[in-house]
Amino acid sequence: QVHLVESGGGVVQPGRSLRLSCGASGFIFSNSAMNWVRQAPGKGLDWVSVISFDGRNKYYAESVKGRFTISRDNSKNTLYLQMNSLRPEDTAVYYCARGYCSGSRCDGLHDSFDVWGQGTVVTVSS
Amino acid sequence: QSVLTQPPSVSGAPGQRVTISCTGSRSNIGAGYNVHWYQQLPGTAPKLLIYGNNNRPSGVPDRFSGSKSGTSASLAITGLQAEDEADYYCQSYDSSLSGPVVFGGGTKLTVL
Q1: Partner of B94 for a Cys bridge, out of A98, B28, B38, B77, CB 3.0 to 4.6 A?
Q2: What does the pLDDT look like over A96-121, one tens digit per residue?
Q3: From A94, which residue of chain B is nearest by alpha-carbon distance?
Q4: SS (H, E, C) chain A
Q5: Is B33 near chain A, with CB under 8 Å?
């Protein structure tokens, strides 16, 4: 059974850091691009970042570039999101999601997201 | 303001057909990039509904279908059921500074 479980969320003050984790099971983690997608309270989905299957390629939304870092450990089947210089507008539920490439452009940026975790809540507040 | 524009809400009676539009531009849908659709039931994580414009993952009923034309895409739901009441999002790639991965603002479907 394919499964993603996020952890690491919590309440943090503006300017501080937090690291999220996403544990994967039920599929070959090292074969899949992985993403972080967030959803602010009462708002829509907002893509954050993607990392290629081998960790070599990483892309970020402009809103988090330079502050967030995505990484993965394929030996542990785990995806990470290091979030620094957090702002109140980063408050959201953070989901990890597996990328699924159905076309010819398999660079992680054209994927659909076929498996999602349950999300972890990050609240940035003083 | 989302790069992909969806109506905030649509509604329909049980058994009816509804469509949800996703309007983009030449830097995303109009450039030929794939559109994907998600369903998010209240309090749950999103679920992939349509990928690659018009493909259904295993387990998604054929009441759900996707299409794309020009700079827009649409999700159609036929034989509307009470359990279809949810938020729906489109997603695509965008080659402008707004990208690279963009979602529509979401559409709330109400089953009357």
Answers
A1: B28
A2: 999 999 877 788 888 999 999 999 99
A3: B45
A4: CCEEEEECCEEECCCCCEEEEEEEECCCHHHCCEEEEEECCCCCEEEEEEECCCCCCEEECCCCCCCEEEEEECCCCEEEEEECCCCHHHCEEEEEEEEECCCCCCCCCCCEEEEECCCEEEEECC
A5: yes
